[in-house]
């Protein structure tokens, strides 16, 4: 009986280790006291402080982060869908190499990827800034979208395409009226995953960013490092945490749906 409780206890300890810091962050965003060591009562003043003029640079970083995430996820949805369809329907001797290229950005450590992208941009003589961040995010987000869409294609019934051809549908009509509607949940789920990864990325962005192009994770790290306005950081982190959970939940719902 005692041995049967060990896995449950270990699971509980792991959950506490993973989620207790997040819970403390959310709780302290409503803490009246400036420092989290004491509880000064419930308040929303730190959320109100986000609207003050002195925190304008924080909102600028948040806006830049959202714009980069939206752009990178949109481009990744297109590239990832095309890559998944090519890998699923077209076979060649180079297929294993293609899969290796696909999974390389996923399995490569962020540190190595950030350094390699930095050397690439420096070699091209590119100016580091929002553009290089966008390209870097597309580089790793496209692979995640491809994997999600490939999973959707595993349950795809090719007989539907054959039936459409028999009814006289052209290739464009088949893509627009058959393939895209059936793959839409997977494409959107991959895009939402790419959006979340882009918003949360720090390491790769750190290497490819330039002056005046800091994203929210970089800005928050800078504020934490200098112990500046920690309660405000808790507030904006809580807002983005809620946004991330909503996106992950929606992505999971779309991924779990099956083609009919």
How many DSSP E strands? 0
Level-2 CATH architecture: Orthogonal Bundle
What is the domain total for the residues?
1
Q: How is the CATH topology named?
A: MetI-like fold
Rounded Rg: 22 Å
Question: Which CATH class applies here?
Answer: Mainly Alpha
Overall mean pLDDT stands at: 84
Order of helices and strands: HHHHHHHHHHH
Termini Cα gap: 45 Å
**Rough outline:** globular
Name given to the CATH homologous superfamily: MetI-like
Low-confidence runs (pLDDT<50, min 5 residues)?
none
3D architecture notes:
It contains eleven helices and no strands. The longest helix is centred in the first third of the chain and has 34 residues, at 56-89. It has 260 residues and is an all-alpha fold. It has helices spanning 2-28, 45-49, 56-89, 95-107, 110-124, 130-153, 159-166, 171-200, 203-208, 216-225, 230-256. It has a single domain (56-256), classed as Orthogonal Bundle (MetI-like fold), CATH 1.10.3720.10. The model has no long low-confidence stretch (mean pLDDT 84). The relative contact order is 0.15.
Topology:
Blueprint: H1 2-28, H2 45-49, H3 56-89, H4 95-107, H5 110-124, H6 130-153, H7 159-166, H8 171-200, H9 203-208, H10 216-225, H11 230-256
Helix pairs in contact: 3-6, 3-8, 3-10, 4-6, 6-8, 7-8, 8-11
Q: What brief labels describe this structure?
A:
globular
Question: Concise description?
Answer:
The chain is mostly helical. The chain has helices at residues 2-28, 45-49, 56-89, 95-107, 110-124, 130-153, 159-166, 171-200, 203-208, 216-225, 230-256.
